Amino acid sequence: MCGCWLSSRDCLTEERLLHIGRWSAGVPAAGSGGAGGIPLPDTGRMTWTATVRRAAAEALAVVFAVECAGCDAPDVELCDACRDALGGPPTRRVLADGLGVRSAVTFDGVPARVLRALKEEGRTGIARPLGAVLRDTWPAGVDAVPVAVPSSRASLRRRGFVPVELIARRAGWRCLPLLALARSTDDQRLLSSAGREENVAGAMTVRGGAAACVGSRAVMLLDDVVTTGATLSEAHRALRSVGIPVAGALTVASTPRRFG
Ligand SMILES: [Zn+2]
């Protein structure tokens, strides 16, 4: 048992998959996997395991009714068409503080439904295809430590897990728990752009012990969805305040809405 929020069975399954360049001392060793020293799962074993997992999931779907998270097609967690809808070249935007954010998809249609299935309906199996999507946003040749933005305590209580941490784990990355919330925050979804900034301003702090693990490397921030960018900018501010460089940020989705 590693102490994470996953069931022991799920956690052990994941541990078996991530046997190359695994996070052991808090920071992945440079050159231990793909570009930037990011640990990648063993592709061959992953393919075989993924095939078995998919067959098992489809068999279970006969017993336990399941619908596609993207389109409600019967007897499949995520149909091929909806899986394809999660593909596409990443988009990039630059926040007001200069932080570059790469996002795999627009938070709309199928991607929005799939993310909501994970975040609001607790369908954690969806984290695996979302992890593959997030993994593809990592810019080639960039060496950085993946760090997830922290969830509010209210969100953690409501869901029982941190979506971006689970997605990152399914991407084959073990996030360094570098950031913490110094105070409670309100649900960002209910706030205006200005309200979101005010809500998270000064809310994050850097854990000193984890910061020592970063060394001279840069950090890559991870989140599931970027909307106004207020949360990522606050994470950026907290890291810069203690001299930790930030290479950029990656998200599964970017909302198309414009906030005034
Ligand atoms: Zn579908």
Give a verbal description of the structure.
This protein has 260 residues and is α/β, with parallel strands linked by helices. It has helices at 8-17, 43-63, 80-85, 109-119, 127-135, 153-159, 163-170, 193-200, 208-214, 230-241, and strands at residues 91-94, 100-106, 144-148, 179-181, 204-206, 218-226, 246-254. The protein is globular, with a radius of gyration of 18 Å. Mean pLDDT is 79; it is low at 1-45. The protein has one domain (8-254). It binds zinc ion. Residues 68, 70-71, 73, 79, 81-82 line the site of zinc ion.
Attribute tags:
260 residues, alpha/beta, five-stranded mixed β-sheet, two-stranded antiparallel ribbon, 10 helices, 7 strands, 38% helix, disordered N terminus, binds zinc ion
Low-pLDDT parts are 1-45
Q: List the domain count as a whole number.
A: 1
Ligand roster: zinc ion
Q: Strand tally, please?
A: 7
**How far apart, in Å, are the first and last alpha carbons?**
46 Å
In short, what is this structure?
The chain is α/β, with parallel strands linked by helices.
Write the layout of secondary structure elements.
Blueprint: H1 8-17, H2 43-63, H3 80-85, E1 91-94, E2 100-106, H4 109-119, H5 127-135, E3 144-148, H6 153-159, H7 163-170, E4 179-181, H8 193-200, E5 204-206, H9 208-214, E6 218-226, H10 230-241, E7 246-254
Parallel strand pairs: 2-7, 3-6, 6-7
Antiparallel strand pairs: 1-2, 4-5
Helix pairs in contact: 5-7
